[in-house]
């Protein structure tokens, strides 16, 4: 179980700070601080830092092996974010789908792509024991 006194940290490249802020704030992520070369977000309780490196952008991203995201423990939270993404016309890399249908590890998932081609996965497992 996660301890509340710890925050996961992830650093990723971005190509433009303004469009990065717009994208992550539209997801509900709070802009914690911004400098000339990076912006730090409260990404659903964890820390994501987008460093300005337009020369480091993956022009042809693939879901595997590199992506990051959030696993919701409540189905309503997953459904709410999916509805928000649709309402705001956020760019999907992979439309909503069910993975491992009929198996214990069955889960609902979708992938968004941020302005720097970083892939974000959001998912919900029907069986909470399959989260880890």
What does this structure look like?
By secondary structure, this protein is α/β, with parallel strands linked by helices. The chain has one domain: Roll (2,3-Dihydroxybiphenyl 1,2-Dioxygenase, domain 1). Helices cover 17% and strands 39% of the residues. It contains two helices and eight strands; from the N terminus they run E-H-E-E-E-E-H-E-E-E. It has helices at residues 17-26, 75-87; strands at residues 9-14, 30-34, 38-43, 46-52, 68-72, 92-99, 107-113, 119-125. The strands form two sheets. Strands 1-4-3-2 form a four-stranded mixed sheet, with helices on one face. A four-stranded mixed sheet has the order 5-8-7-6, covered by helices on one side. A hairpin with a 2-residue loop joins strand 3 and strand 4. The protein is globular and about 45 Å long. The termini are close together. 18% of the residues are buried. The mean pLDDT is 95.
Describe, in short, the structure shown.
The chain has 132 residues and is an alpha/beta fold. It has helices spanning 17-26, 75-87, and strands at residues 9-14, 30-34, 38-43, 46-52, 68-72, 92-99, 107-113, 119-125. The chain has a single domain (9-130), classed as 2,3-Dihydroxybiphenyl 1,2-Dioxygenase, domain 1 (Roll).
